[in-house]
Each structure stands twice: as C-alpha cells, then as structure tokens.
Amino acid sequence: MTATTAMAATASAVAGLRFHSGKVLVDGEIRDPISQKTLDQIFPATGEVVAQVASCDARDVDAAVGAARAALDSGWRELNVKDRRRLLLGYARALAEHTEELALLQTFDSGMPMQMSAGEVIGAPAAADYFEYYAGTVDKPIGHVLPVYGKGFDYTLREPLGVVACITAWNAPVFLYAAKVAPALACGNTVILKPSEIGATVTLRLAELALEAGIPKGVINVITGTGKECGEPLVTHAGVDAVSFTGGTATGRHIASLTGAQLKRTVLELGGKSANIVFEDGEIGLAAMLSAGMVAYGLSGQGCACATRALVHRSKLEEFTKTALDTVAFMQPGDPFDPATMAGPLVSARQLDRVLGIVQRGVEEGVEVRCGGNRVGGDFASGFFMEPTVLSTTNDTTPAREEIFGPVLSIIPFDDEEEAIRLANDTPYGLAGVITTNDVKRAYRVAGRIRTGTLGINSYSVGATIPFGGVKHSGYGREGSLHALDDYSQIKNVYVELG
Ligand code: TXE
To answer: What are the pLDDT digits (tens) for 429-450?
Structure first.
C-alpha cells in the first residue's frame, strides 16, 4: 500500500486488516467460488489492487440457492418466535461488538471516510440497530381477526416469501446489508446477498458474524460477481422467490423487467435527485450546511438521498451561495482512514470520469462553476478524488437533471413557493428532499406537495425506525420501520366455517 505522507493512515490501517479475499460464503462455509474466477478489488484512495472479489457464475448461484432453500425448509421458516428473537438479538450484539472492525472493512471496500463509516447513521453501528429493531418485531402481533358475513371465523397470517435475493451497491455496504437482511430474517426468509463487485470484504464478514452468533448455516449466503454473470442468474433463478435491489435506476428497470416476467416480488431502491428548498425565512447557514454537507462530506455525494439540488429563493441566492462555498472549502477530501478526514474519494475511476463528464457537459450548456470541477492532483493523484464542486445553474441542465453520484451541488434560484414546488417535482426521481423554513404552515403545506418517498424539514433523517424508499423512478418498496415487513412477507387469509 502506498505510504506517502498523505496516505499514511491508509497504509497502517490496511497492514493491520484481516479479511477474506476472493471468497464466497455458502451453506456456512467460506470458500473459493465454483467458477474459480476473481476480480481485482481496487482501493479508491490509492488506485491500488488490495484484494480479490469472487467472480461467481450460474453454478455458484445454484449452490447458494440450494443452501438457502435447504435452510428455509429445515427449520428456519418454522422457528418459534422466542428462538428467532433470541438469535437476531444475539446477532445484533455480535455486530455491535465488532463495530470498529466492520467500519474499517467498509472503508476498505468503498473509500467511505472512517468518520462516517464509524458514525451512527449509515456507518457500522447502524447494522446492530436494524437487527435489534427487527428482533423486536418477531414476537409482536402478526395478523388480524376479521369480521365475516356468515357464521365463520377468519384470521390472517404473515408468512415468509421464501428465498430472497438481496443485491446491493457499493456506496454504503453495511447499511444496505442490514436494511435488507434484518427484516427478511425477521419474517422467516433466508437470503442470498450479492454485494457490488467493487468490494465485498465487509459483507462477507457481516455474514460470517451471523454464523458465529448462532444463525444456522444457509440462512445468509454471500456470493459476488458482475451483474451479468452473477446478478442476472440470481434474480431469474427459479428457486429465488423475491428480489430486493439497491442500485442505479437503469439496472433496477432491467431487473424489474426480468422479475416482472416471472411475477416475482421485487423491491427497488434506486437513484435520486433530491431538492433542498431554501425559503427566504429559512436559516441560510443551516441550509447551506445541509446541502453542501450532503454532497461534499463523507460519501462525496455518492448517496441516493443527497439533496444535490439547492433550490434557493432569489432574495437569498447570494448569501446562500457564499455560505455553501465557505462550507465546502472546509470539506476537502483526504485519506479515508485518517479519522480527521471529512470527505473520501469517488469509488472508481469509472465513477470519477462519469462525474467529471457531467460537469463538463454542464459547462458546455452554460452552467457556472463556482468552485471545484476537477480531479484532485498532488499526493492524491493516483486515487479517485474530486474537488467539491458548486454550480450555479437552472433546473434544465445536465448537472441539474442527472443523478451525479459525486460531490457536485447545483444551486438553482426560484421566485415564489409555487415555482419552488414545481422545480422540486420537475425530475424523474422521487426519493428524498429537504424543506428549509421557519414557517410551520408553509412546511406542512409544501411537504404535502413534494412527490418523494421521504422528506425532512430543516434536517434529514434515516434509520431502522423510519421507512425509506422512493416514488417515480426512485423505485418502490420501503426499507426500515414496520412497513418493510410488508415487503418481505405475504398475508395468508384463513377462513374457518363454524356454521
Ligand atoms: O450501479 P449498478 P453502478 C447509481 C449512481 C451510479 C449509477 C451506476 O447514479 O452512478 O447508479 O452505479 C448489480 N442483474 N447508483 O454501476 O450497476 C451490481 O453488480 C443483477 C445509485 O455501480 O446499479 C451491483 O451489485 N444485478 C444507488 C448492483 O447491481 C446487477 C447506488 C448495483 O450496481 C445487474 C449505486 C443485472 N443485470 C449506484 N447489473 C443507490 N440507489 O443508492 C448490475 N447489477
């Protein structure tokens, strides 16, 4: 690992890391893939190959589905609620005890700075939260007794779907794992995880900890590889009953077409282009911190819920822009393993090129670059770092319309409330958003008219207790909260004739 002064923290952290390289976890066993193929795992901050990722094919998919099906049928589906709750709570404890190790592996896989990787919201501690929360749902009421017209008795049962394929992205692997696996297991399903081929060590460790905590073999399986060779055979496998996917909208649409043809239950958590509507009565410092923070801090804008469009009342445009520029100036990227670093690199050379290309297209369309816009050089030149970028634009340019997934904030003016609502909704996406205002009536009025799955007033929140998901091209289904149970179970109605 490169030992420049700029990357000293990375060099020492990686030297001390223990991880599974190029392996899968199937039927309780960590082993080589049947395909015998691997892909290079590249650390985004240095551009160096640091590990291997198993490149599975249909044979590995078959083995994983077989293991998940056997575990389902040999007791997991029928497990009594006390044992299921105890196992999930034990797993939550194991995750909490390994928080630091999981945070280090998450940073290793994704380049997410340790500050965020160890933080509560989407960092390693979130995994324990999700399992604790869903353990608490296991022994609570599960159905209804329903009135009937005849002399009978009618009740509903909540049943597992069966084997669930969970396909996750690279940007927050711990959070994505927990948000899918915890409700799926609570409902009595078994799962096959296919994390991103960009990095999988933390997902393998998460699943290995489940075994150590007593969750039976085959309940959680991890296979890795490309979308084409591993993802598609998985989602279309006849032994897979449901699919839960987090990733890009184009991939989600393709997966939905495959699972739709098979009439398979599917949850899609896709991209976003969220707005932060900054009204003239709002606190500008807070609004700028929220917008600039979401794109420049931590994930460097590689988060689907980031409010990457700041819609600002024209009377506050200058003040907001200046504050946003001052804010991002503090959030320059650095060594992700250094605890002081506030922003990391982009995940890959491909992602960096894509983001630089979108900014370039914006410039050709007349967008004004207020700061940033370039790859970071010097000591960081071999990594995939990009300067935090602030653009002044209108809502019809490429940077304002595309999901960028990089540290780029588009500032867009509006003149009145009606126009703000129109601009916020003028996007194919509908995942998240923020309203900055101190007028409670306005907040209530506007919140009801923004077409998103989730919204924050003067802040933004996500977590195990809160439903998260999109509308429009941001997908369907919800993760977190009791609502997620609906996506990982089915209702059976039972009528008993008493006449
Ligand atoms: O995601 P992909 P990529 C957006 C973001 C980003 C763009 C592309 O805008 O720039 O998507 O990122 C698996 N069948 N988001 O290419 O391809 C793949 O192996 C089955 C938003 O990295 O969607 C990986 O495990 N699986 C997003 C997962 O899908 C397939 C987070 C995601 O990869 C597949 C990430 C196929 N045909 C990117 N093709 C969010 N919602 O947060 C790929 N995969």
So the answer is: 999 999 999 999 999 999 999 9
